[in-house]
Amino acid sequence: MIRALVQFEPIDLAATLAAVEGSGSGAVASFSGFVREDDGVRELALEHYPGMTEAVLHALAEEAVARWQLHAVAVVHRVGPMAPGERIVLVATAAPHRHAALEACAFLIDRLKTDAPFWKRERREEGARWVAARDGDAGAADRWR
To answer: pTM above 0.85?
Structure first.
């Protein structure tokens, strides 16, 4: 089971994890990313390339399934405006054993940071600005290539 979604609505953590946990696996690993309140961020708005973004998320999930023989994968990413503390992304992987589930989860979040076509804009008291990729993101993704 692969679930790769891009949505404006808040991510339903319980429903997403329940779907992955119901795969009969021995281990489920998950990662949730949240809007940080770094340096006075009041809002984070994400834009994406519809159709292409979902295809990239699905392709990454398929690669993870093939590499780690996963039973289930969920990659759910939000777009639109979000406030500090809101969940932006949820990645969950189910595998026969914990090592595969943990590795696949790390692979997915690292690769999604660099490969998925998302654009971020932060709004602060002094105005809005586009957010560049962090220096370490490319290096984290490269370790999986």
So the answer is: yes
Give the pLDDT confidence of 48-86 residue by residue, as tens digits: 988 899 999 999 999 999 999 999 999 999 999 999 999
Structure tokens at 87: 């969940």
H or E stretch at 77: strand 72-78
Q: Which two tokens stand for residue 123?
A: 């709004």
Structure tokens at 119: 């654009």
Q: Which string of DSSP letters, residue by residue, matches 89-126? A: EEEEEEESSHHHHHHHHHHHHHHHHHHS-EEEEEEETT
- Measured CA to CA, the distance from residue 28 to residue 71 in angstroms comes to 10
* Nearest C-alpha neighbor of 78 from the set 38, 107, 109, 47: 47
Backbone angles phi, psi at 111, to 5 degrees: -75, -35
Query: 């595969």: which residue's tokens?
Result: 100
Q: Are 91 and 75 in contact (CB under 8 A)?
A: yes
